[in-house]
Amino acid sequence: MPPVYLDCNATTPLDPEVREVLFHYLTEEFGNEGSRTHEYGSRAKQAVQKARDQVGAVVGAKREEVIFTSGATESNNLAILGLAAHGIETGKRHLIGTSIEHKAILEPLEALEKQGFEVTWLASDEQGRVCPGELSNALRPDTLLVSIMAANNETGVRQPIDEIAAVLAGHDAFFHTDAAQAFGKDIGPLRNGRIDMISVSGHKIYAPKGIGALILRRRGYERPPLKPLFYGGGQERGLRPGTLPVAHVAALGMAAETAMKNHEKRRIRCREIKDAALTAFSSLSPRIHGRSEETMDHVLNLAFPGIDSEALIVALKDLVAISNGSACTSSSYTPSHVIKAMGYGDDEANEAIRLSWCHLTPDVDWDGLVGRVENLY
Q: How far apart are CA 77 and CA 63, in angstroms?
């Protein structure tokens, strides 16, 4: 038997309903939605518009507020770098991010920092959460953007999005959240109307890799004043040129629809797996990163003091597939910046492993895992 896949925060399997839609538009309805002169193009356009409705429905957004991208990394870059010109024009050059963001947020913010913008980096507490009070203290009249993730990709810790939105209620800074790990899973917070921009990644919610969205909520009749990062065609309201991958767009739409429809059922299954893992590991007294009640039900980040994560991954590789950090930086492994931001040193960060699963995950031999860990002591 192959190892049980426990790395769903890196990427998820295709949901069966999503797979059906994907292959239908790959092989049968293969038209270009930009083709205006024939029925193939018309049907493709209808599929894309339906997908906008499906994606928007998850967060209470309108179809015209959904911009399709290649994934959350592109969406994050468009949300951050796309605001630069507006910041320069208005004299608002202050940005706020956090020390626990994904590299797809950290690096665009750092790029603007090199261009003369000033970035305030909010620290997290020892449980991996940002304090809304610290945000309030950091806000300035020239603050252009606040970017705080909805749920952390390594620890699964939810950020207090509603409280952050309340802090921003009287300020005109744009509020962006990287929701790659929360979209379709933690429904309520992302419906907060104070969030201006939401980044979505399809392959985190059982759709294919290479498709995502940036949701741009309007304030009144005005959308966030983004400039495109590249040019050529004017698609996606002039923000993201290029032929849309209709099959992937339709698949993302179905993934969004099924996430809404099956949200509670999936959450219960994920919680069952998490409870089983915590019960099995309790005899080993692991160090848990993040309070259980503040983390997503499909993620568990922990360490067994004295056991290096790389050694543990090797010892368990025939039983489970797990990770020790973000898949986007795994080619050049360094101690997790997220765990270090929570106050741990390099040695402790090197002990951290992440287990992440989904409603499609089969039962896990937790007793077998515990036995392997015990053998490493």
A: 21
